[in-house]
Amino acid sequence: MNVELLTRDALAAFAASRRQAFEAELKTLVEIPSVSSDPERAGDLRRCAEAAVDLFRRHGGEAGILETAGNPIVHGRLDGDPAWPVITVYNHLDVQPANEPEWTTEPFAMGVDGDTYRGRGTTDDKGPALSAFFGALAAREAGVPLNIRFIWELEEEIGSPSFRGGLEAHRERLATDAVVVSDTVWLTRGRPSTPAGLRGLQGFRLTLETARHDLHSGVVGGAARNPLAELMSVVAAMVDGHTGKVRIPHFYRKVVKPGRKELKEWEKSGFSVETFMRDHEVLGLRTEHPLKVMKRIWGRPTLEVHGVVGGYTGPGIKSSVPPRAEVKLSCRLVPDMDGPSTLDLIRRWLAANYPDVQLHEEHGLAPFKGHTTGRYAEAVKEAYAFAFGAPCAFTREGGSIGAVGTLEEVLGCEVYFLGLSLPSHGYHAPNENFDWEQASGGMAAFAHYFRQVSAF
């Protein structure tokens, strides 16, 4: 191993020499609209997988497509001696839709504005995936004695419904000593953070039908039931819209609260309410106490309303009583909650109080309790400090990554996180972006991480 190629200066030079290649590869991936929630994009998802396979082969690696019952999995390999340890990097190449009117550029035509890359998927998760890949190339050039492999999924944004089956079908081929995930968000620029846990998710819809067609409000208004108004009252009975407190009895009974040691780690993380609001362009919060905000986004479950469907939504007012309505909701879950029992609790509460309202289950993801100690955790901390010159804080992630728990269960190894995205990058938002500072720093962080774990 040539350690001179793994110094900060050498890795900065490596990143600079590969910048043009990184940008070209990112452009290729971003301009494939791999929207997994859209059935009409199935061909684009396959095209994205094939482009990823070509990417590995162009850079001297091996890769193949692993078929599943749903979207394919790309498995890439930068292998050396079979006796060397094996580390696998997980990312996903599917993306959210990009139908928000706030986009100022074409979402599936990558724009370059100085050091900023714009387009859907630049930060979630194609940019970080490529940063990890180029970090692996740097480690390979330096002769790091490690077999580095990659799992690039194409269903993460829809809850990874076929991922477990795909892993189980190819378990022997995917065997690894540990997995590192690069699909998480820091607190802010210059302050690396990595999750010690992820919230889960359980989506559902409520529907109510009270008539066969639109009704004239002047003829039936006051006597006919209004499904929109009734569902609004149901939601108000479920959750306090001002405080966010869920009113369904026993909703919090399984919640494992963060311990004193973990809370102290959060307090030392450098979290700033002002920065949080600026990065997310939030106009107001339910509390502005830093620790209370962190508890709410990382350590407490939620019940959120995402959309209301029903009635007339065109210009002006149509004075009718709608025949049916729908509300789209989800719960974020924390350890030791789970989706099925949470839905069962809600279903029983509805049956007792609003028997006409129907609950329809949507996809769910289990919460994940992460790891903060041990040699792999220390390697993550050292990689961040080496590449970005700042200590890493173990926090939690408010979002969900369905594949994480599945990777641990099926492959029988621990999963750690080495994310690179920032709140200002616009995860799931219009005008999503990534930047060269995080990309090049990520290459150095991963190269250093690979060097560290090669000795395990």
UniProtKB/TrEMBL annotation:
Protein name per Swiss-Prot or TrEMBL: Peptidase M20 dimerisation domain-containing protein
Domain Peptidase M20 dimerisation residues, every copy: 197-356
InterPro entries: Cyt/Met_Dipeptidase, Peptidase_M20, Peptidase_M20_dimer
Signal sequence, start to end: none
Organism expressing this protein natively: Mesoterricola sediminis
Gene Ontology BP, a term: proteolysis
Pfam families: M20_dimer, Peptidase_M20
Claim: Protease is one of the keywords in the record: yes
GO molecular function: metal ion binding; peptidase activity
Keyword line: Hydrolase, Metal-binding, Protease
Domain of life of the native organism: Bacteria
